[in-house]
C-alpha cells in the first residue's frame, strides 16, 4: 500500500521527529511511504482568518502535490480537517479543481484514523511505563470525526498508566492566528488547560495535533512544569523501540 | 449601554472587544460564577441527551423543522398572523426596532399605562424598550428573577437564558439590601422569597404584561412561553393587556413540530425534560374564560432578520431556538462572560447574529474573531447551525470589505506568495532558522517582538531546528528501506 506523508508546515519545520515516527510505524505495517516534496501548507491560517482567495492559491499547491497519491496521511487532524471540511467549498466555482479537491478529500487521513480505520491496527505492540494523559484536538474530533481512535491505540499500550484529563474536550486556546490576535482570550484558555493537565497527575501529555501540543507545551514550559509533551505517533514509536 | 459599572471600558462593539476582554478576565467573581453555572448547564445537557434516545436523530428532526419553517417563512408568518387575528388578537409587523418601540408606545398610550410587568424577552432588549419606556415615564418591571436582579444593578443580561449568570449570591444579597433597606444574607431561599413577594404586587398592579415568545405556532396562532418561575404565565394572564414581542423567525408550523423543538429547547438549555411551566396561549380572554387578558397584541420584529433570507451561508442562523447551549460549551464565553461581546446576544450565536442583524461588519463584525473555531458550539447546537463555519465566513466578509488592517492584508498576501511556491517556501523556512537566532534562549523563544509577543506573553515557543523534515527525508528513506527489508517490527 502506497502512502504519501502530508507532513504539515508546522511539523515539517518545528517537529520533524513527529513525522519520522509516523513514517516508521506506517512502514512497519507494510506501507510504502513517500514524501511529495511539492507540499507546503493546507491554507488554513489564511482561510480561518478570512483570506479565502489566498488560502485557495496555497491549497492548489497541496492538491497538485498529492495528485498521484493513493493515500495521504497527516500527523494533524486540523490540517486534514481543513481539506475535508473546506476544500470542496473553496473550489465550488471551478469544476475541474473541485473534482481534484474531492479526490484529495477521499484519500486524506489523520494518522490515528488511518492506522485504526484503514490498516485495522489498534495494538502496535508498544510499552510505555509512564503516567499519560490525552488531549483530543477540536478539529480532529469535530471537523474530521476522529473520536475513539487515539484512545483505542493508547489503551492497547502495555504498562501505560492512563490519567483522565479534567474537561478533556475543551479547546486549549490555540486556534491558529487566534492565539496571537486574541492573545488574552487564548491565554485564559491555555492556562486552564495546562492546569488541568497538571491536575491529571500525568508525566506525559499526548495529542494528535502539534499546534495544540505546541500551545499547551509552551504554557507548561513557561510555568516550569515537568510534563513531557508529545505526539501519539512519537509515543507509539518510542514504546515499540523499548519493547 | 453596557453591563459594566466601569465606564473606562470601551463600549464600541469591535474596538472595545479587547479592553472588555481584559476587564472580564480580571474579574474573578465573574469568571468563577460563569464557569460554575455553565459547567452545571453543560453537564445537565449531556445527561439529558443520554436519556433521550437517539439525540442525533432528534437534532436532525429539529434542524429539518426549523429549516423548512425559515424557507417558507412568508407562508407561515401569514398563517400565524391570520390565526392570531381570528382568535381576537392584533398583529403588527415592524421592520426596525424603533417601529416596534413606537407600536408598543401607541398601545401603552391608548391604555394610559403607567406600569408594565415584563416577562423575559431578549427581543425587548434588542430594541432597548426599557430605556424608551423610562424616557416616557412608564415604569417597566422585570419579573424574571435574573432580569429583576439586573434591573436593580442597572445592567444588561449576559446570557440568553440565565441573564444574571455573572452575579454571585453575595452580590445579589447586596443589591437586595440596597434596594429594600432590609439586610439580606446571601441565602438563595431568602433572596428568592423576597423577590417573589415583591414581584407579586407588580403582577396585580401592572397595566400591561409584556412577554417574548419562545415559539409561535402557525396553525393556531398560539404563543408558547417556557419558564421555570411561572412569571411568564402571571404577566400574560393577570394584566388587562398582553403584548408579545417576537422575532419574525420564531415560528413552527404545527403542534407536532412544537413537541420536537420544546423537547430540544429544554434539554439543550438546562438539561430539563420540560421547563417547569410551558404556557400555550391562544387569543385574549374569550367569553367563559376564567382568566386571561382582555387585549392581545403581537409585535413581530424583522430588524435585520429578513436580510438573511436567501443567503446561502447565513440563512440557517435564523434556525436558532435560543437555548444558549452554544454559550454554555464555548470556551471563550466561559472565560470572558456575555458582556465582553458588547451586544445583546453573546456567545457564539451572538458573535454571528450581532453583525448580521446590525448589518455592521466594521464594529460588530469583529465579534467573529472572538472564537478559536473549536466547533463546540456546532456540536452542542440542537438544530445543527454551523456557527464555527459562519464565524469564518464573517471574517471573509470583513476581508472582502477591506475592513482588516493593512499589515494583516500584506501578511496574508506574502503567505500566499511564499506558501504557494515551494522554492520560496524552502528559502523562507531556511532564512527563518537564521533570523530566529537573536531571540533564542535555552533552545526556546521566551519573548518576541509583536506580533509574536501575542504568543510569548503566555507561553514559550519552540525554536526551529536546523534540519526540517524535508532536510531529514533522505536519511529517513534509507532507514525505512532497511526496516522494510527486516519485515518491519510487527
What does this entry show, briefly?
With 243 residues, chain A is an alpha/beta fold. Helix content of chain A is 54%, strand content 12%. Chain A has two domains: 2-118, no CATH class; 131-242, Rossmann fold, CATH 3.40.50.
Describe this structure in words.
- Chain A has 243 residues and is α/β, with parallel strands linked by helices.
- Chain A has two domains: 2-118, no CATH class; 131-242, Rossmann fold, CATH 3.40.50.
- Chain A has 13 helices and eight strands.
- In chain A, the strands form two sheets. In chain A, strands 2-1-3-4 form a four-stranded parallel sheet, with helices on both faces. In chain A, strands 6-5-7-8 form a four-stranded parallel sheet, with helices on both faces.
- In chain A, helix 12 (210-222) links the parallel strand 7 (204-207) and strand 8 (228-231).
- In chain A, helix 5 packs antiparallel against helix 6.
- The two termini of chain A are 26 Å apart.
- In chain B, helix 3 packs across helix 12.
- Among the domains of chain B are: 53-307, Rossmann fold (3-Layer(aba) Sandwich), CATH 3.40.50.10420; 405-433, no CATH class; 436-485, no CATH class.
- In chain B, the strands form three sheets. A six-stranded parallel sheet of chain B has the order 1-10-7-4-2-3, with helices on both faces. A four-stranded mixed sheet of chain B has the order 8-5-6-9.
- Chain B has 21 helices and 13 strands.
- Chain B is α/β, with parallel strands linked by helices and 490 residues long.
- Classes of the chains: A alpha/beta (243), B alpha/beta (490).
- Chains A and B meet through helix 1, helix 2, helix 3, helix 4 and helix 8 of A and helix 1, helix 14, helix 16, helix 17 and helix 18 of B.
Structural class of chain B: alpha/beta
- Radius of gyration of chain B equals 27 Å
Main beta sheet of chain A, described? 4 strands, parallel
- Average residue pLDDT of chain A: 97
Q: Number of DSSP helices of chain B?
A: 21
Q: Which regions of chain B have little confidence, pLDDT < 50, spanning 5+ residues?
A: 1-7
Biggest interface, chains and residues, is: A-B, 75 and 72 residues
Q: How does CATH name the architecture of the domain at 53-307 in chain B?
A: 3-Layer(aba) Sandwich
Total strands of chain B: the figure is 13
Portion in helices of chain B: 40-55%
Head-to-tail CA distance between termini of chain A: 26 Å
Instruction: Please tell me how large the radius of gyration of chain A is.
Output: 18 Å
Amino acid at each position: 500500500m502506497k502512502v504519501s506523508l502530508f507532513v504539515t508546515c508546522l511539523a515539517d519545520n518545528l517537529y520533524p521527529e513527529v513525522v519520522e515516527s509516523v513514517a516508521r510505524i506506517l512502514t512497519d505495517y507494510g506501507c510504502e511511504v513517500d514524501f511529495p516534496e511539492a507540499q507546503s501548507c493546507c491554507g488554513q491560517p489564511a482561510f480561518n482568518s478570512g483570506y479565502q482567495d489566498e488560502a485557495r492559491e496555497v491549497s492548489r499547491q497541496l492538491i497538485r502535490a498529492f495528485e498521484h497519491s493513493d493515500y495521504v496521511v497527516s500527523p494533524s487532524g486540523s490540517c486534514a480537517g481543513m481539506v475535508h471540511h473546506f476544500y470542496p467549498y473553496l473550489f465550488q466555482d471551478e469544476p475541474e479543481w473541485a473534482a481534484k479537491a474531492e479526490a484529495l478529500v477521499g484519500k486524506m487521513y489523520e494518522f490515528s484514523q488511518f492506522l485504526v480505520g484503514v490498516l485495522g491496527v489498534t495494538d502496535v505492540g508498544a510499552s510505555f511505563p509512564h503516567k499519560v494523559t490525552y488531549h483530543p484536538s477540536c478539529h480532529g474530533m469535530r471537523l474530521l470525526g476522529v473520536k475513539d481512535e487515539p484512545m483505542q491505540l493508547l489503551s492497547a499500550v502495555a504498562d501505560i498508566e492512563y490519567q483522565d484529563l479534567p474537561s478533556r474536550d475543551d479547546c486549549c486556546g490555540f486556534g491558529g492566528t487566534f492565539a496571537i490576535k486574541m492573545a488574552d482570550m487564548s491565554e485564559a484558555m491555555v492556562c486552564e488547560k495546562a492546569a488541568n493537565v497538571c491536575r491529571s497527575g500525568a508525566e506525559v501529555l499526548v495529542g494528535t495535533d502539534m499546534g495544540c501540543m505546541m500551545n499547551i507545551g509552551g504554557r507548561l514550559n513557561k510555568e516550569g512544569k515537568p510534563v513531557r509533551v508529545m505526539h501519539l505517533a512519537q509515543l507509539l514509536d518510542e514504546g515499540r523501540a523499548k519493547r | 449601554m453596557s453591563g459594566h459599572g466601569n465606564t473606562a471600558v470601551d463600549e464600541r462593539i469591535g474596538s472595545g472587544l479587547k479592553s472588555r476582554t481584559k476587564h472580564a478576565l480580571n474579574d474573578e467573581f465573574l469568571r468563577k460564577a460563569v464557569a460554575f453555572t455553565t459547567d452545571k448547564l453543560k453537564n445537565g445537557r449531556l445527561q439529558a441527551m443520554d436519556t433521550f434516545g437517539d439525540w442525533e436523530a432528534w437534532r436532525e428532526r429539529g434542524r429539518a423543522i426549523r429549516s423548512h419553517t425559515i424557507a417558507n417563512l412568508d407562508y407561515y408568518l401569514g398563517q400565524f398572523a391570520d390565526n392570531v387575528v381570528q382568535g381576537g388578537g392584533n398583529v403588527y409587523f415592524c421592520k426596525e426596532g424603533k417601529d416596534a418601540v413606537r407600536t408598543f408606545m401607541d398601545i401603552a398610550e391608548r391604555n394610559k399605562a403607567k406600569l408594565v410587568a415584563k416577562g423575559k424577552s431578549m427581543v425587548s432588549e434588542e430594541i432597548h424598550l426599557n430605556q424608551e419606556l423610562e424616557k416616557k415615564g412608564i415604569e417597566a418591571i422585570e419579573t424574571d428573577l435574573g432580569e429583576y436582579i439586573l434591573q436593580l444593578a442597572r445592567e444588561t443580561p449576559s446570557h440568553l437564558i440565565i441573564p444574571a449568570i455573572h452575579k454571585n449570591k453575595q452580590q445579589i444579597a447586596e443589591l437586595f439590601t440596597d434596594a429594600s433597606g432590609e439586610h439580606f444574607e446571601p441565602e438563595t431561599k431568602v433572596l428568592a422569597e423576597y423577590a417573589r413577594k415583591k414581584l407579586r404586587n407588580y403582577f396585580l398592579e401592572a397595566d400591561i404584561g409584556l412577554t417574548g415568545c419562545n415559539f409561535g405556532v402557525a396553525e393556531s396562532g398560539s404563543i408558547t412561553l417556557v419558564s421555570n418561575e411561572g412569571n411568564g404565565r402571571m404577566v400574560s394572564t393577570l394584566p388587562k393587556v398582553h403584548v408579545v414581542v417576537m422575532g419574525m423567525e420564531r415560528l413552527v408550523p404545527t403542534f407536532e413540530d412544537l413537541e420536537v423543538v420544546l423537547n430540544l429547547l429544554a434539554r439543550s438549555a438546562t438539561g430539563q425534560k420540560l421547563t417547569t411551566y410551558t404556557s400555550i396561549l391562544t387569543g385574549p380572554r374569550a367569553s367563559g374564560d376564567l382568566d386571561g387578558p382582555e387585549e392581545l397584541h403581537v409585535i413581530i420584529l424583522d430588524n435585520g432578520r429578513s436580510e438573511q433570507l436567501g443567503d446561502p451561508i447565513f440563512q440557517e442562523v435564523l434556525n436558532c431556538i435560543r437555548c444558549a447551549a452554544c454559550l454554555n460549551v464555548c470556551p471563550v464565553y466561559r472565560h470572558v462572560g456575555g458582556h465582553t461581546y458588547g451586544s445583546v446576544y453573546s456567545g457564539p450565536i451572538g458573535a454571528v447574529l450581532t453583525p448580521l442583524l446590525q448589518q455592521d461588519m466594521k464594529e460588530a463584525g469583529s465579534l467573529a474573531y472572538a472564537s478559536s473555531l473549536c466547533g463546540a458550539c456546532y456540536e452542542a447546537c440542537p438544530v445543527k447551525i454551523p456557527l464555527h463555519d459562519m464565524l469564518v465566513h464573517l471574517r471573509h466578509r470583513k476581508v472582502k470589505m477591506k475592513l482588516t488592517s493593512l499589515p494583516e492584508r500584506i501578511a496574508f498576501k506574502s503567505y500566499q506568495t511564499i506558501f504557494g511556491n515551494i522554492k520560496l517556501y524552502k528559502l523562507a523556512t531556511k532564512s527563518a532558522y537564521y533570523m530566529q537566532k537573536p531571540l533564542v534562549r535555552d533552545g526556546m523563544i521566551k519573548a518576541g517582538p509583536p506580533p509574536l509577543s501575542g504568543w510569548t506573553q503566555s507561553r514559550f515557543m519552540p525554536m526551529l531546528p536546523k534540519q526540517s523534515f524535508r532536510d531529514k527525508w533522505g536519511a529517513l528513506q534509507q532507514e525505512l528501506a532497511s526496516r522494510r527489508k527486516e519485515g518491519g517490527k510487527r
